[in-house]
User: Fold this.
Amino acid sequence: MEKFKEWFSNPEQILGLLIKYGGQLLLAIITLIIGLWIIGKIVKGMRKMFEARQFDASLQSFLISLTGIALKLMLVISVVTMLGVEMTSFIAILAAAGLAIGMALSGTLQNFAGGVMILIFKPFKVGDYITAEGHSGTVKEIQIFHTILNTPDKKTIILPNGPVSNNSTVNYSTEPVRRVDFTFSIGYNDDIDKAKQVIMGVIEKDERILKDPAPFVGVINLGDSSVDLVTRVWANAADYWGIFFDMQETVKKEFDRQGVSIPFPQRDVHLFQAK
Assistant:
């Protein structure tokens, strides 16, 4: 505190410091501002170039983010050097700090490695619908440290790349054709063959359902109060959810129209009067 008072009590000393270091500081600030502006232009130009050349969307966000971080790090080193800090000393300090930060951010480094593994082995790409880490959604971006999903109800989910690359991931978009499974229950007093004919009739009327592989309907379980019929049909991946919802509604209406019951659990309760 006394030292600061001594400086402010000597205007000539303050002026000397401003003359000595003010130019370097001003030049460093100008360099920082211009450098950030140029980096922004470079990143924007990379994005336009990738889009024009229809570059792999999965790599776009990763490379753009990586380039931006690398250029900003180089800019900071240049600005610090302009302020008079020796490069060798700065690199030594940076290396020591990097080691400490690396130990503290081991999870972040794991996420970076996970992002690289995802881009190399491509278990999924931008636009795929996946389930990972208990979340489902369409892949919007694959960044350096995170994968961003968009859910059907328009939520954004940010998943760290490390766990995503090391754990199981279900990709629903890799195959053009998917199987749609249903289970329809009928009563024990109902005619199984009739119920199967009703279900097959609904299937034949739906043009979205593929003929090859052939649809299948069969008894899968004899439950406590119902006979369960499993139904398996194949469709293009884009038609999956439409068929899933429409089939259940249409089969229920046809069962009602043709007198096929859909049972529900029932219990007989016997009352005994105590004497």
